[in-house]
Amino acid sequence: MTIRRRRSALYMPASSARAIAKARTLDCHVVILDLEDAVAPDEKTAARDRVVEAVREGGFGSRELVVRVNGLGTPWYADDVAAVREIGVGAVLVPKVSYPVDLETVRASLGEDGPPIWAMIETCAAILSLPTLSQAASATRLTALIAGTNDLAKEMRCRLGPDRTPLMPALTATVMAARAAGIVALDGVCNALDDAPRFAVECAQGAMLGFDGKTLIHPSQIEAANAGFAPSEEELARARLIVATFAKPENADKGAIRLDGQMVERLHLAEAEAMLAD
Length: 278
Prior knowledge:
Blueprint: E1 8-13, H1 17-23, E2 30-34, H2 44-57, E3 64-68, H3 77-84, E4 91-94, H4 100-110, E5 117-121, H5 124-128, H6 130-135, H7 137-140, E6 142-147, H8 149-156, H9 168-181, E7 184-187, H10 196-209, E8 213-216, H11 222-228, H12 233-246, E9 256-259, E10 262-265, H13 266-277
Helix pairs in contact: 12-13
C-alpha cells in the first residue's frame, strides 16, 4: 500500500516565476501555488496566467500540486476557478470555507469532475461548522482541511504565544473532523522564520495532535517539517516489534497480546502497519 506523504506543504507566491521554478527543486511533499494572500490585487490576473502556464509545463515531479484560489465573494474567485479547474492540479485550496453551502458552491464552480477541494479552516464559523463540513466531504469531494491559524487567531482576538494554547481546541476539532471524514489534516503556518526551536516545537505539537503535516511559508522550514512529522526511530522499532509479535503462530487468533508489560490490541497492529508502510 502506498501512502502519500504530506508532511510539508509549501506556499509559493504565484506572482513569482522564480518561486515557481524553485518549487520544482525542493523537498516538500506539496507545493501550493498561492493566488490569494501572496499576490497583490493588481497582480492577480498575471499570477493566474502564470499558474496555468506552470501547471501545463509541469516539472513538479512527485510533489502534489495545489492551487490556492481567492475566496468566495472576491472579485477574482470565478476567474481563478475557471482557469484552474481543467489543467490537472491535484486540488484547489479555498480560503475561508465556513459552511457546507460554501463547499457546495465551490463544487458547482469546479464541476462534478473537477479537482478535489481543500478547505481553509480559518474562521470561528468554520470551527463551529466542522461536524457538518465533515459530513459534506464525500458529496463535495473535500479531501483536506487546512488550519488557517493566522486568520483564526485574528478573528478570535486571542493572544498567541509559542504554545498556541488559545488555538488548541480549534486545532483538535479540525483533526477530529478530518479523521471522521477520512481526509487529510494539515497544521497552520509558523510565522517565526528565524526561530528554529519554535518551529520544531510547533511541528512536534502538530504531530502530537494528529495532523498529517504542516503548511509552510518558506523553503527553510521544509526539512524540519519532514522530520517533525515522520515517525521516530523508537516509534518505528516499536511498530516492527508489534507486527512481528502478532505474526507469531501462537498470536494468530488473538485480539490482544501482552508486550513489554503493555496490552496491545489489533488496532495498534493496524497503526503499526500503516506507520511502516509510510
